[in-house]
Amino acid sequence: MNENERLNDLKKFQILDSQPEKEFDEIVKLAADIFQVPISLISFIDSDRLWFKAKFGIDLLETPRDLSFCNNIDTTDSQILVINDTLLDNRFKNNPFVDCENGIRFYAGAPLVSENGNLLGAFCIEDTEPRNLSEFELRTLKSLSNRVLELLLSRVAKIDQEMEIVSNDDLIEKISDHSPGALFKFQITNDGDMSFPFVSKGITLIHPGLTPEMLKNNAVLGFNTIHADDLPKVYESIGNSFKTLTNLDFEFRIAAEDGTIKWHRAKANPEKREDRVVWYGTLQDITESKEYIETLEEIMFSISHIIKRPVTTLMGLVQVLNEENISLEKINGLTGYFNKVASEMDEYTQKLNDVFLEKKVKATTKQFASL
Protein backbone atom coordinates (compact mmCIF):
# COMPACT_ATOMS: atom_id res chain seq x y z
CA MET A 1 0.00 0.00 0.00
CA ASN A 2 1.33 3.41 -0.99
CA GLU A 3 1.01 5.59 2.13
CA ASN A 4 1.14 8.91 0.29
CA GLU A 5 -1.57 7.77 -2.08
CA ARG A 6 -3.66 6.57 0.86
CA LEU A 7 -3.32 9.90 2.69
CA ASN A 8 -4.20 11.80 -0.47
CA ASP A 9 -7.36 9.73 -0.81
CA LEU A 10 -8.23 10.48 2.81
CA LYS A 11 -7.67 14.23 2.35
CA LYS A 12 -10.10 14.29 -0.58
CA PHE A 13 -12.92 13.49 1.84
CA GLN A 14 -12.09 16.55 4.00
CA ILE A 15 -13.20 14.54 7.02
CA LEU A 16 -10.30 14.89 9.45
CA ASP A 17 -11.00 17.26 12.36
CA SER A 18 -14.43 18.08 10.97
CA GLN A 19 -17.30 18.94 13.30
CA PRO A 20 -19.66 16.23 14.61
CA GLU A 21 -22.48 15.38 12.19
CA LYS A 22 -25.82 13.94 13.17
CA GLU A 23 -25.88 11.14 10.59
CA PHE A 24 -22.55 9.69 11.74
CA ASP A 25 -23.40 10.05 15.44
CA GLU A 26 -26.70 8.22 14.94
CA ILE A 27 -25.10 5.26 13.19
CA VAL A 28 -22.58 4.54 16.00
CA LYS A 29 -25.41 4.72 18.54
CA LEU A 30 -27.43 2.30 16.40
CA ALA A 31 -24.50 -0.15 16.22
CA ALA A 32 -24.06 -0.07 19.99
CA ASP A 33 -27.73 -0.93 20.41
CA ILE A 34 -27.75 -3.67 17.77
CA PHE A 35 -24.63 -5.47 19.00
CA GLN A 36 -25.10 -4.59 22.66
CA VAL A 37 -21.53 -3.32 23.02
CA PRO A 38 -20.28 -0.44 25.20
CA ILE A 39 -18.15 1.14 22.44
CA SER A 40 -18.82 1.93 18.78
CA LEU A 41 -16.60 4.08 16.56
CA ILE A 42 -16.14 5.56 13.10
CA SER A 43 -12.39 6.11 12.87
CA PHE A 44 -9.99 7.45 10.24
CA ILE A 45 -6.31 6.65 10.01
CA ASP A 46 -4.16 9.77 9.65
CA SER A 47 -0.37 9.69 9.23
CA ASP A 48 0.31 9.26 12.96
CA ARG A 49 -3.06 9.08 14.68
CA LEU A 50 -6.46 7.40 14.67
CA TRP A 51 -9.10 10.14 14.65
CA PHE A 52 -12.74 9.50 15.59
CA LYS A 53 -15.40 11.11 13.43
CA ALA A 54 -18.14 9.61 15.59
CA LYS A 55 -17.89 7.75 18.86
CA PHE A 56 -20.12 6.09 21.43
CA GLY A 57 -18.89 4.98 24.86
CA ILE A 58 -15.55 6.83 25.00
CA ASP A 59 -14.44 10.44 25.47
CA LEU A 60 -11.23 10.28 23.44
CA LEU A 61 -11.01 12.30 20.22
CA GLU A 62 -8.05 10.35 18.85
CA THR A 63 -5.36 7.80 19.74
CA PRO A 64 -1.81 7.13 18.48
CA ARG A 65 -1.90 5.23 15.22
CA ASP A 66 0.58 2.60 16.35
CA LEU A 67 -1.76 1.61 19.19
CA SER A 68 -4.88 1.34 17.05
CA PHE A 69 -6.59 -1.93 16.14
CA CYS A 70 -7.81 -0.46 12.82
CA ASN A 71 -4.23 -0.07 11.58
CA ASN A 72 -4.03 -3.86 11.31
CA ILE A 73 -6.94 -4.26 8.88
CA ASP A 74 -6.00 -5.92 5.59
CA THR A 75 -7.79 -4.25 2.68
CA THR A 76 -6.84 -6.84 0.06
CA ASP A 77 -10.04 -8.82 0.68
CA SER A 78 -12.08 -6.09 2.47
CA GLN A 79 -12.80 -8.55 5.25
CA ILE A 80 -13.85 -7.48 8.74
CA LEU A 81 -11.05 -7.76 11.27
CA VAL A 82 -12.41 -9.69 14.26
CA ILE A 83 -10.42 -10.23 17.46
CA ASN A 84 -12.50 -12.42 19.73
CA ASP A 85 -10.14 -12.10 22.68
CA THR A 86 -7.36 -9.52 22.54
CA LEU A 87 -5.44 -11.20 25.39
CA LEU A 88 -5.02 -14.25 23.20
CA ASP A 89 -3.66 -12.24 20.24
CA ASN A 90 0.08 -11.50 20.33
CA ARG A 91 -0.47 -8.30 18.33
CA PHE A 92 -2.65 -6.73 21.01
CA LYS A 93 -2.23 -8.43 24.37
CA ASN A 94 0.34 -5.82 25.49
CA ASN A 95 -1.54 -2.85 24.04
CA PRO A 96 -2.17 -0.27 26.81
CA PHE A 97 -5.85 -0.12 25.81
CA VAL A 98 -6.01 -3.88 26.44
CA ASP A 99 -3.67 -4.30 29.38
CA CYS A 100 -5.61 -2.07 31.76
CA GLU A 101 -8.68 -2.09 33.98
CA ASN A 102 -11.79 -2.62 31.84
CA GLY A 103 -9.49 -2.93 28.83
CA ILE A 104 -10.64 -3.85 25.34
CA ARG A 105 -11.13 -7.64 25.08
CA PHE A 106 -13.12 -7.78 21.84
CA TYR A 107 -12.76 -5.84 18.59
CA ALA A 108 -14.48 -6.03 15.20
CA GLY A 109 -13.69 -3.50 12.49
CA ALA A 110 -15.16 -3.24 8.99
CA PRO A 111 -12.75 -1.40 6.67
CA LEU A 112 -13.70 1.90 5.03
CA VAL A 113 -11.96 1.71 1.68
CA SER A 114 -11.62 4.39 -1.02
CA GLU A 115 -12.43 3.79 -4.69
CA ASN A 116 -8.69 3.34 -5.23
CA GLY A 117 -8.62 0.52 -2.70
CA ASN A 118 -6.88 2.52 0.03
CA LEU A 119 -7.78 2.06 3.69
CA LEU A 120 -9.32 5.25 5.07
CA GLY A 121 -10.39 3.93 8.45
CA ALA A 122 -12.92 1.57 9.98
CA PHE A 123 -16.39 1.24 11.38
CA CYS A 124 -15.83 -0.77 14.54
CA ILE A 125 -17.39 -2.10 17.71
CA GLU A 126 -15.54 -2.98 20.94
CA ASP A 127 -16.34 -4.76 24.17
CA THR A 128 -14.66 -5.24 27.53
CA GLU A 129 -15.56 -8.95 27.40
CA PRO A 130 -14.48 -11.61 24.86
CA ARG A 131 -17.19 -12.56 22.37
CA ASN A 132 -17.92 -14.03 18.95
CA LEU A 133 -19.98 -12.68 16.07
CA SER A 134 -22.45 -14.75 14.08
CA GLU A 135 -22.57 -14.65 10.30
CA PHE A 136 -25.68 -12.50 10.55
CA GLU A 137 -23.89 -10.05 12.85
CA LEU A 138 -20.91 -9.89 10.48
CA ARG A 139 -23.23 -9.07 7.56
CA THR A 140 -24.97 -6.43 9.66
CA LEU A 141 -21.66 -4.78 10.59
CA LYS A 142 -20.65 -4.81 6.92
CA SER A 143 -23.97 -3.23 5.93
CA LEU A 144 -23.48 -0.46 8.49
CA SER A 145 -19.97 0.21 7.21
CA ASN A 146 -21.35 0.47 3.66
CA ARG A 147 -23.80 3.03 4.96
CA VAL A 148 -20.92 5.02 6.43
CA LEU A 149 -19.19 4.99 3.03
CA GLU A 150 -22.41 6.25 1.42
CA LEU A 151 -22.52 9.09 3.94
CA LEU A 152 -18.89 9.92 3.16
CA LEU A 153 -19.53 10.05 -0.58
CA SER A 154 -22.66 12.15 -0.09
CA ARG A 155 -20.70 14.49 2.16
CA VAL A 156 -17.98 14.96 -0.47
CA ALA A 157 -20.59 15.56 -3.18
CA LYS A 158 -22.23 18.20 -0.99
CA ILE A 159 -18.89 19.91 -0.31
CA ASP A 160 -18.08 19.92 -4.03
CA GLN A 161 -21.51 21.37 -4.80
CA GLU A 162 -21.10 24.08 -2.17
CA MET A 163 -17.66 24.95 -3.56
CA GLU A 164 -19.14 25.16 -7.05
CA ILE A 165 -21.92 27.41 -5.77
CA VAL A 166 -19.39 29.68 -4.05
CA SER A 167 -17.32 29.76 -7.22
CA ASN A 168 -20.39 30.59 -9.30
CA ASP A 169 -21.45 33.24 -6.80
CA ASP A 170 -18.00 34.84 -7.06
CA LEU A 171 -18.26 34.81 -10.84
CA ILE A 172 -21.76 36.25 -10.79
CA GLU A 173 -20.65 38.94 -8.35
CA LYS A 174 -17.71 39.90 -10.57
CA ILE A 175 -19.95 40.06 -13.63
CA SER A 176 -22.67 42.03 -11.85
CA ASP A 177 -20.18 44.49 -10.36
CA HIS A 178 -18.91 45.33 -13.86
CA SER A 179 -22.33 45.49 -15.48
CA PRO A 180 -23.77 48.90 -16.39
CA GLY A 181 -26.24 50.08 -13.80
CA ALA A 182 -27.07 47.96 -10.76
CA LEU A 183 -28.40 44.42 -10.38
CA PHE A 184 -30.58 43.71 -7.39
CA LYS A 185 -32.66 41.16 -5.53
CA PHE A 186 -35.56 42.82 -3.72
CA GLN A 187 -38.17 41.11 -1.58
CA ILE A 188 -41.31 41.84 0.42
CA THR A 189 -42.64 39.37 2.98
CA ASN A 190 -46.33 38.71 3.50
CA ASP A 191 -46.00 40.90 6.61
CA GLY A 192 -44.81 43.82 4.47
CA ASP A 193 -41.12 43.80 5.42
CA MET A 194 -38.90 45.04 2.55
CA SER A 195 -35.24 44.14 2.04
CA PHE A 196 -32.46 43.98 -0.55
CA PRO A 197 -30.66 40.62 -0.02
CA PHE A 198 -28.37 41.49 -2.94
CA VAL A 199 -27.33 44.72 -4.65
CA SER A 200 -24.35 44.99 -7.00
CA LYS A 201 -21.66 47.63 -6.61
CA GLY A 202 -23.08 49.44 -9.63
CA ILE A 203 -25.54 51.16 -7.29
CA THR A 204 -22.74 53.43 -6.09
CA LEU A 205 -21.85 54.41 -9.66
CA ILE A 206 -25.35 55.59 -10.49
CA HIS A 207 -26.07 56.86 -6.97
CA PRO A 208 -22.88 57.85 -5.08
CA GLY A 209 -24.87 58.33 -1.87
CA LEU A 210 -25.74 54.63 -1.63
CA THR A 211 -23.73 51.43 -1.17
CA PRO A 212 -24.81 47.76 -1.34
CA GLU A 213 -24.21 47.42 2.40
CA MET A 214 -26.44 50.41 3.18
CA LEU A 215 -29.34 49.00 1.19
CA LYS A 216 -28.92 45.50 2.60
CA ASN A 217 -29.15 46.92 6.13
CA ASN A 218 -31.98 49.36 5.41
CA ALA A 219 -34.03 49.07 2.22
CA VAL A 220 -35.93 52.28 3.01
CA LEU A 221 -32.78 54.31 2.28
CA GLY A 222 -33.20 53.52 -1.42
CA PHE A 223 -36.79 54.74 -1.48
CA ASN A 224 -35.90 57.90 0.45
CA THR A 225 -33.87 59.08 -2.55
CA ILE A 226 -36.89 59.03 -4.87
CA HIS A 227 -38.51 62.35 -5.75
CA ALA A 228 -41.54 62.97 -3.53
CA ASP A 229 -43.82 63.40 -6.55
CA ASP A 230 -42.77 60.01 -7.99
CA LEU A 231 -42.77 57.97 -4.77
CA PRO A 232 -46.53 57.18 -4.70
CA LYS A 233 -46.30 55.88 -8.28
CA VAL A 234 -43.32 53.68 -7.38
CA TYR A 235 -45.09 52.17 -4.35
CA GLU A 236 -48.23 51.63 -6.44
CA SER A 237 -46.26 49.77 -9.12
CA ILE A 238 -44.53 47.54 -6.56
CA GLY A 239 -47.79 46.85 -4.73
CA ASN A 240 -49.54 45.86 -7.95
CA SER A 241 -46.64 43.56 -8.90
CA PHE A 242 -46.77 41.99 -5.42
CA LYS A 243 -50.45 41.15 -5.86
CA THR A 244 -50.54 40.16 -9.53
CA LEU A 245 -46.93 39.02 -10.11
CA THR A 246 -46.68 41.26 -13.17
CA ASN A 247 -43.23 42.48 -14.20
CA LEU A 248 -41.97 45.79 -12.87
CA ASP A 249 -40.95 48.51 -15.33
CA PHE A 250 -41.11 52.13 -14.21
CA GLU A 251 -39.16 55.38 -14.34
CA PHE A 252 -38.66 57.85 -11.52
CA ARG A 253 -36.61 60.86 -10.53
CA ILE A 254 -34.05 61.09 -7.76
CA ALA A 255 -32.31 64.13 -6.31
CA ALA A 256 -28.53 63.82 -6.59
CA GLU A 257 -26.28 65.10 -3.80
CA ASP A 258 -25.42 68.18 -5.86
CA GLY A 259 -29.11 69.03 -6.18
CA THR A 260 -29.49 67.96 -9.80
CA ILE A 261 -32.33 65.71 -10.89
CA LYS A 262 -31.51 62.28 -12.28
CA TRP A 263 -33.81 59.80 -13.97
CA HIS A 264 -33.67 56.11 -13.08
CA ARG A 265 -35.46 53.11 -14.57
CA ALA A 266 -36.21 49.91 -12.65
CA LYS A 267 -37.08 46.62 -14.35
CA ALA A 268 -37.63 43.37 -12.45
CA ASN A 269 -39.35 39.99 -12.67
CA PRO A 270 -41.27 38.75 -9.60
CA GLU A 271 -41.14 35.25 -8.16
CA LYS A 272 -43.65 34.01 -5.60
CA ARG A 273 -42.27 32.23 -2.55
CA GLU A 274 -44.17 30.67 0.35
CA ASP A 275 -43.98 33.75 2.60
CA ARG A 276 -42.76 36.49 0.23
CA VAL A 277 -42.39 37.81 -3.27
CA VAL A 278 -38.87 38.21 -4.65
CA TRP A 279 -37.89 40.43 -7.59
CA TYR A 280 -34.71 40.02 -9.65
CA GLY A 281 -33.96 43.10 -11.69
CA THR A 282 -31.84 45.99 -12.89
CA LEU A 283 -31.62 49.69 -12.11
CA GLN A 284 -30.34 52.05 -14.80
CA ASP A 285 -29.51 55.75 -14.93
CA ILE A 286 -31.48 56.94 -17.95
CA THR A 287 -30.82 60.66 -17.49
CA GLU A 288 -28.84 60.88 -20.72
CA SER A 289 -31.57 59.06 -22.62
CA LYS A 290 -34.19 61.35 -21.15
CA GLU A 291 -32.18 64.41 -22.11
CA TYR A 292 -31.67 63.00 -25.58
CA ILE A 293 -35.39 62.40 -26.04
CA GLU A 294 -36.21 65.86 -24.69
CA THR A 295 -33.69 67.35 -27.13
CA LEU A 296 -35.29 65.47 -30.01
CA GLU A 297 -38.70 66.72 -28.95
CA GLU A 298 -37.33 70.28 -28.86
CA ILE A 299 -35.78 69.79 -32.28
CA MET A 300 -39.01 68.44 -33.70
CA PHE A 301 -40.86 71.39 -32.22
CA SER A 302 -38.31 73.76 -33.70
CA ILE A 303 -38.52 72.04 -37.06
CA SER A 304 -42.28 72.45 -37.11
CA HIS A 305 -41.88 76.21 -36.57
CA ILE A 306 -38.57 77.24 -38.12
CA ILE A 307 -38.90 75.21 -41.28
CA LYS A 308 -42.43 76.44 -41.78
CA ARG A 309 -41.24 79.76 -43.25
CA PRO A 310 -38.81 78.42 -45.90
CA VAL A 311 -41.27 75.70 -46.84
CA THR A 312 -44.03 78.27 -47.29
CA THR A 313 -41.66 80.37 -49.40
CA LEU A 314 -40.78 77.37 -51.55
CA MET A 315 -44.43 76.54 -52.07
CA GLY A 316 -45.06 80.11 -53.19
CA LEU A 317 -42.14 80.01 -55.60
CA VAL A 318 -43.32 76.73 -57.05
CA GLN A 319 -46.76 78.21 -57.56
CA VAL A 320 -45.25 81.15 -59.47
CA LEU A 321 -43.26 78.76 -61.65
CA ASN A 322 -46.43 76.91 -62.49
CA GLU A 323 -47.95 80.05 -64.00
CA GLU A 324 -48.52 79.93 -67.74
CA ASN A 325 -46.48 82.15 -70.01
CA ILE A 326 -43.93 82.95 -67.29
CA SER A 327 -41.05 84.88 -68.77
CA LEU A 328 -37.41 83.90 -68.62
CA GLU A 329 -36.66 87.23 -66.98
CA LYS A 330 -39.09 86.41 -64.14
CA ILE A 331 -37.58 82.96 -63.68
CA ASN A 332 -34.12 84.46 -63.38
CA GLY A 333 -35.49 86.87 -60.77
CA LEU A 334 -36.72 83.94 -58.65
CA THR A 335 -33.28 82.29 -58.55
CA GLY A 336 -32.11 84.49 -55.72
CA TYR A 337 -35.08 83.47 -53.59
CA PHE A 338 -34.36 79.78 -54.21
CA ASN A 339 -30.71 80.28 -53.19
CA LYS A 340 -31.74 82.08 -50.01
CA VAL A 341 -34.19 79.35 -49.02
CA ALA A 342 -31.61 76.64 -49.78
CA SER A 343 -29.03 78.49 -47.67
CA GLU A 344 -31.43 78.72 -44.73
CA MET A 345 -32.24 75.01 -45.00
CA ASP A 346 -28.55 74.08 -45.15
CA GLU A 347 -27.72 76.25 -42.14
CA TYR A 348 -30.47 74.70 -40.05
CA THR A 349 -29.56 71.16 -41.15
CA GLN A 350 -25.96 71.77 -40.03
CA LYS A 351 -27.15 72.98 -36.62
CA LEU A 352 -29.34 69.91 -36.30
CA ASN A 353 -26.39 67.66 -37.13
CA ASP A 354 -24.22 69.42 -34.53
CA VAL A 355 -26.82 68.78 -31.82
CA PHE A 356 -27.01 65.07 -32.68
CA LEU A 357 -23.21 64.80 -32.71
CA GLU A 358 -22.88 66.53 -29.35
CA LYS A 359 -25.39 64.20 -27.71
CA LYS A 360 -23.74 61.13 -29.25
CA VAL A 361 -20.29 62.15 -27.96
CA LYS A 362 -21.66 62.77 -24.46
CA ALA A 363 -23.46 59.42 -24.35
CA THR A 364 -20.37 57.55 -25.62
CA THR A 365 -18.08 59.29 -23.12
CA LYS A 366 -20.35 58.39 -20.24
CA GLN A 367 -20.56 54.79 -21.39
CA PHE A 368 -16.77 54.37 -21.40
CA ALA A 369 -16.45 56.17 -18.09
CA SER A 370 -18.72 53.58 -16.45
CA LEU A 371 -16.56 50.64 -17.58
How are the SSEs placed, and which strands pair?
Layout: H1 3-12, H2 22-35, E1 39-45, E2 49-56, E3 62-64, E4 81-83, E5 106-113, E6 119-127, H3 135-177, E7 182-189, E8 194-199, H4 202-206, H5 212-217, H6 220-224, H7 231-244, E9 248-255, E10 261-272, E11 276-285, H8 287-306, H9 308-321, H10 328-369
Antiparallel strand pairs: 1-2, 1-6, 2-3, 4-5, 5-6, 7-8, 7-11, 9-10, 10-11
Annotation keywords:
single chain; 371 residues; Beta-Lactamase; five-stranded antiparallel sheet; 47% helix; 22% strand
How would you explain this protein's 3D organization?
By secondary structure, this protein is an alpha+beta fold. The chain folds into 3 domains: 164 residues, GAF domain (Beta-Lactamase, 2-Layer Sandwich); 107 residues, Beta-Lactamase; 81 residues. The chain has 10 helices and 11 strands. The strands form 2 sheets. Strands 3-2-1-6-5-4 form a 6-stranded antiparallel beta sheet. It has a 5-stranded antiparallel beta sheet with strand order 8-7-11-10-9, sandwiched between helices. The two termini are 56 Å apart. The C terminus is likely disordered.
